[in-house]
Write a structure and sequence with these properties.
37% helix; globular; eight-stranded parallel beta sheet; 451 residues; alpha/beta
Length: 451
């Protein structure tokens, strides 16, 4: 079954790039009962994003082609797809590891840090572009000039931190991922907290992780976990640059979600008030669709949310995660902005999400032994699922093989442990993931009772 699809591209400021794209979507909406809204995460270009979308919806189509017996209740639905394109940045897994990528040398290396800062100068207006923001370029060039002085000059370290902060918008900082302290802590404290080596747990060995295509595969990271053993001022400076890269994408995803995608979804609902919306986000795209959902009115019916290895805090939906503050997107749960169900795939095999978060722990003075896991206050959603929820709000289970029975229901969050089927951060297009998304879509109508 080939589902009709509609591409809508957004600029880095969250504006719709081509109004006719939205017009084409809106013209089709009256003929649909359900709209899947899917957002990529970090990708270099349109081709990368399209490959992700094509593979995921090929899996969805394969399940639908089997017939109504596999996922009952969908046979008479008229399904369409809104494919979101936004100017994210491509990361390798290694680049998301503290001190990883070019910085994973065995000794201190100024050139590696300068290379990281050079990459940060790229700030594309559209996905796949190579635009450079002049203000950002000036600040980062100044930071590069400070690199030889960082080990011996405290004033250089302070200026380095201020320059990194200057290219970011602090409005998206939040306590749930340690980013508030990135903007508020003294520069020397930041350097001291990030100077030591970082070790985070990996996936358990044995038992064979199965790839999304059904073939046995090794879990990324292995039993020994993932390590960044570099120490010292330059290692800290690299980790600060990595955190800046992460925060810039977090900021961008939130902006495009609330200022770009959310108004489009409102126009869709204005055109057809009872259309079911199924929001799907991979990686930072998970944050994008969650930010869009966070703008919906309280008690919004017929909305599901599927977060596939989402790259934001596992406290994002929590109530009083630190006994004082709610997660950034708590109102989605508290005010039923998404009627549900909400499904979240998570796995220890995801080193991109699982290892980025120890940075937040170090920035926030938390020298936890189990960095990045569910016991770390600053773990990632794609590593651990939603954490610190109220009793009864969250169900822990597994991502199931096709044909196994889910007990999904509206009004709840379902953490689906995916170690058996998701081998790494990008392996989210298999039939098992598609099957979970369709099962969530199947029960969307039941959510009306919650309103």
């Amino acid at each position: 079954m080939q589902l009709p699809s509609f591409d809508v591209e957004f600029t880095r400021s969250g504006e719709v790039f081509s109004a006719p794209q939205v017009d084409a979507l809106l013209a089709a909406v009256p003929g649909l009962t359900d709209l899947f809204v899917v957002s990529h995460g970090w990708n270099n270009d349109m081709a990368d994003a399209r490959r992700l979308y094509d593979a995921l919806f090929r899996s969805i189509s394969d399940i639908l082609d089997i017939g109504d017996g596999v996922v009952p209740g969908l046979a008479n639905r008229r399904l369409g797809v809104l494919r979101v394109f936004w100017p994210s940045k491509k990361f390798t897994d290694e680049e998301l590891i503290p001190g990883g990528g070019a910085a994973s040398a065995t000794k201190e290396n100024d050139a590696a840090l300068i290379q990281q800062l050079e990459a940060l100068k790229t700030d594309p207006e559209r996905l796949g572009g190579h635009d450079r923001n002049p203000v950002r370029e000036v600040a980062l060039t100044q930071a590069q000039q400070l690199v030889p002085k960082l080990e011996t000059d405290a004033s250089a370290r302070r200026e380095y931190v201020m320059l990194l902060r200057s290219i970011l918008n602090p409005a998206d900082a939040h306590a749930d991922d340690g980013s508030e302290e990135f903007f508020s802590r003294d520069a020397e404290e930041l350097f001291d907290g990030l100077k030591g080596n970082v070790v985070a747990p990996g996936a358990t060995s044995g038992g064979g992780v199965t790839s999304v295509h059904g073939a046995p595969g090794a879990a990324s990271g292995g039993a020994a976990g993932l390590k960044d053993l570099l120490e010292g001022v330059k290692a800290a400076a690299r980790r600060l640059a990595n955190f800046t890269t992460y925060y810039a994408m977090k900021e961008r995803a939130g902006l495009v979600g609330r200022a770009g995608l959310a108004p489009v979804l409102q126009r869709v609902r204005d055109r057809k008030s009872d259309i079911r919306l199924h929001l799907i986000g991979h990686s930072f795209g998970g944050r994008l669709v969650t930010a869009a959902a966070n703008t919906l009115p309280p008690n919004t019916p017929r909305v599901t949310l599927s977060l596939l290895q989402a790259a934001f805090s596992h406290n994002g939906l929590a109530e009083k995660f630190d006994e004082k503050r709610d997660g950034a997107f708590r109102s989605i749960i508290a005010q039923k902005r998404v009627s549900g169900p909400i499904i979240i795939t998570h796995t220890k095999n995801d080193k991109a999400v699982g290892i980025a978060y120890p940075l937040a722990s170090r920035i926030s003075r938390d020298q936890a032994a189990a960095l990045g896991d569910a016991n770390d206050p600053y773990g990632g959603m794609g590593r651990n699922g939603a954490q610190r929820m109220k009793p009864g709000e969250c169900v822990f289970g597994d991502l199931l093989a096709v044909g196994k029975q889910y007990a999904l229901a509206p009004g709840k969050v379902f953490n689906l442990k995916a170690d058996a089927f998701i081998a790494d951060h990008g392996s989210v297009t298999g039939v098992q993931v598609a099957y979970a998304i369709l099962n969530a879509a199947r029960v969307a109508d039941d959510a009306v009772a919650l309103t």
